[in-house]
Here is the input.
Amino acid sequence: MAAAVSAYHNISISKSFFSTKVIYTPTGCAVKTMVLEYSPSDGKQVERLLCMPPDEMIADIEHNGKPRTGANGNFRLDICLSKDRRFCALQLFRFVGLRYCPVFAPRFYEGKDAETVAKLF
Here is the structure.
């Protein structure tokens, strides 16, 4: 997912000797990464939620609750989220054949959609 995020048009990356900073350029906020793991049932819920339009996600979460994270899950969600929650990139992986395989290509959200998607975690 790193290659997709670094190629995204609203992301700038500055490297120094000791660090790399990823910035969401419209707001100038730093982008941080997270990795969350889910059980098979919660991973399926994450997959289902991410196939919905962002405005439908909130209603589903209110009705069914948030997916719960766990250690050493069957699903892994890689997330890049700006500090102001105006940018979110994520990719879901499933553990198959002794490795994590992408469930879908990286997805990018900006503005209000990013704020909505960020409520998942």
